[in-house]
Amino acid sequence: MARPSRPPGFDMTYRPTETVFGPPFVVKIPSFIYLCCALAVVTIVLLAEASPAGSWLYVHITERGIRGPISARTVAILLMIGGVASVVRSNMRGVRIRGDGLEYRDVLALGFPKLRRFKWAQIDGIILDGPRTIALDLWDGTRAFLPEVSDRVGLSAVLEKVGHARAIPVRGGSGLDEIPDSSEFAEED
Question: Half-sphere exposure of 32 toward its Cβ, with a 13 Å CA cutoff?
Fold first, then answer.
C-alpha cells in the first residue's frame, strides 16, 4: 500500500526558528577591561618608540626592551592577542535554539569550553521559575542548567512555546499570550 504524499516541507512537529541568546554584558566586562589594558600598553609602546632618544619613555621601555629577553613590542602584541581572544571567548557563551533541539556553550574554569546539545525528545521538563537560571529535566533523570543569557525573558518565552507545542511540561513561565481563540477554528458557512 502506498503512503499518501505530503507537500514538501510538511512536518508533524513544531520546529522553532533558530535563535541565539548571548551572554549578559556583566559577563563580558572582565574581557573588555583586559582588552582596554592591552590597548593602553600598545599605545604606550608606540609612544615610547616614537619619542626622542633621551626621553623617559624611550629609555625605560624601548632601550630596556632591547636589552631584555623579550622586547616591549612583543609583549604588547601578545597582550593584544590575548585581549582579543578573551573578548571572543566571552562572546561564545550562550544558548542557541535550533529546530531539532537546543545547544548551550559555557566556559569552565581555566577557559575550557563546554558545549552541550539536547534534542527536544531528550527533554522531559523545562523549569523556568528559578530567579536567574533555567533548567532542563532530561530523559535520563539528570538536570541541566543553562548559562545566564542577556535576554532571559525572551529565552523563557521561546522555551515555553516549544514546551507547549511539543507537550513538554513547563514549570514557571509567564503564560502564553499567543494561544489561538476558538473562534479562529469555527467552520465557515
Answer: 6
Residue with cell 513538554: 168
Query: Is 144 in a helix, a strand, or coil?
Result: strand
C-alpha cell at 49: 618608540
The answer to whether the Cα torsion of 145, 146, 148, 154 is positive or negative is negative
Residues of the chain with pLDDT under 50: 1-7, 9-12, 180-189
Q: Please, are residues 143 and 137 in contact by the beta-carbon 8 Å criterion?
A: yes
**pTM across the whole model:** 0.68
Dihedral of CA atoms 34, 37, 39, 42 in degrees, nearest 10, equals -120
Angle at CA 70, nearest 5°, toward 67 and 76? 120
19-24+97-171: CATH class: mainly beta
